[in-house]
Amino acid sequence: MLYLLWDTEGQLETFFRTFAVAYSKTIHMNLHRTDAYADYDGDAVEKELKRRLWWHLTSTDLLHAGIPGKREGVYSINPNQICVKYPPNHDDDSIYYRASLGTGVPLDQPTDMCYFLWRLKFAELCREVLDAMQKVKPGSSSASYELTVQLSQRYMAFLGELPWFFRPDMGAELKISRLAVQRPYILRQRTALLFGVFSRLGRLHRPFIAQGMKDSKFATSYKSGIYCAENLFKLRHKGCG
């Protein structure tokens, strides 16, 4: 429902009210303490669903905190107040009642959960960026730009960590298309993830792009702005195609 509201109505109060209700219900259901009890020996499917529900809500909260608007920079879920493990990286049909889920396969292998987990890692990176930007004093342009470059490197490092089927590597298009025959959702997931990264990276550099056209000190922002714009156009073209 949250996806549907965001896609159809955007940043209207209906979305945020619905999110608040969902967040309140998960707290009452104690989902934020799912893994606080080591002696739990219940249904593995139930526990997996609880983890997925909680981390989906958390990643949605963190990602929307980075979108421009009245609520930019504000998120509700504090990572220091929860005790929930990440869901393992595996296909849904590998979950069995009362079975040990283990750690799953490495994150560079495509599964039903791979996008979910990389989206979560990206959401946590966005939270770190938001927290860092909040500490910059208004009017401190030199310190702000130095931090911008540092945070930009974090985004680029994240891109480098992505598995081959999510990376913005046009040379792997044929290989990705073959994978999409077995997992058709992978193309849409790749587009959504990369669109989120490039839009935020470009927005990070936006205050300094114009200066980068004249002052070599800010050249990194100018080049990064062009790089992000080109990749966003490519993603848009692929999405429309």
TrEMBL record:
Membrane-spanning intervals of the chain: none
Entry keyword annotation includes Transcription: yes
Keywords linked to the UniProt accession: Nucleus, Transcription, Transcription regulation
CDD domains to which the protein is assigned, alphabetical: fungal_TF_MHR
Organism name: Aspergillus udagawae
Localization annotation: Nucleus
Domain of life of the native organism: Eukaryota
Gene Ontology CC annotations of this record: nucleus
Keyword Nucleus: yes
Name this polypeptide is given: Transcription factor domain-containing protein
